[in-house]
Design goal:
4-stranded antiparallel β-sheet; 5-stranded mixed β-sheet; Immunoglobulin-like; about 240 residues
Length: about 240
């Protein structure tokens, strides 16, 4: 498995093992010094370059190879190799240079992996329909995710094709607006509940006169009606 390196980042990698060319298994001693240019880089694009380094060997069989920012600038496969017929058997090691965000997310765990959703089920997200009878995302709902810990902010731009203004939401609740279907109802769900509470549990006055009024628990008149021969007529709902 290739070892991951962070793109455009200076680092030092352990390179080896180096063994004696004479017997093929004894580790090279710590006193070995590789000639400048004996270690080469090979990038995914096929370009090869030598490293100008007399690489020290801090412990038997392994060399510490410093890589500069320019050495890791190109993302993709990366190989170090070295061979000397009179000194050691060939040595090679494969690496994978990955973008900084990928390395920080997958290796260090210090960042979130950046994901750009360009398609879902073969379509662009703005054209996907989730349960077409209920929800359609087609310039309808915009979701702005700024932080996983902070939650998900949803920006509702339209409902049933009608634009949602801040004034609409401020005037009542989002539930009111969702439940209100222009052209069918003339009041919202909350308004209906106010009237029901007044009729079912509110105080009443004027029952013996020509008009009656029903109050909600806060004392606001919610139903006003004329009374003719004991019958309630001309009922008016007060929803404000």
């Amino acid at each position: 498995m290739a070892i991951w390196l962070r793109q455009s980042t200076a680092t030092t990698v352990e390179f080896g093992p180096f063994v004696e060319a004479t017997d093929g298994y004894s580790y090279k001693a710590t006193t070995i010094t590789l000639a400048s240019g004996s270690i080469i880089y090979r990038w995914e694009n096929g370009n090869v370059t030598g490293i100008a380094l007399a690489a020290p060997m801090p412990f038997p069989g392994w060399v510490a190879v410093p890589l500069a920012v320019s050495d890791t600038a190109q993302a993709g496969k990366f190989m170090l190799r070295c061979g000397n017929a009179t000194s050691n058997l060939p040595v090679w090691r494969e690496y994978m240079i990955v973008p900084a965000n990928v390395y920080d997310s997958m290796i260090l765990g210090s960042a979130n992996l950046a994901v750009n959703a360009v398609s879902i089920a073969g379509q662009t997200p703005t054209n996907i329909t989730f349960n077409a009878a209920v929800l359609s995302i087609a310039a309808g709902v915009g979701v702005n995710v700024s932080s996983a810990n902070a939650g998900v902010g949803v920006n509702v731009t339209s409902i049933n094709g009608a634009a949602v203004s801040s004034a609409t939401v401020a005037a009542g609740s989002v539930l009111d607006y969702v439940m209100f279907n222009p052209g069918v109802q003339t009041i919202t769900v909350k308004d209906v509940l106010k009237v029901i509470v007044a009729g079912a549990a509110g105080k009443l006055d004027g029952a013996t006169g020509a008009a009656v009024r029903l109050y909600d628990p806060s004392g606001t008149v919610r139903v006003s009606a004329a009374v003719v021969s004991g019958n309630r007529t001309g009922v008016t709902w007060v929803t404000g």
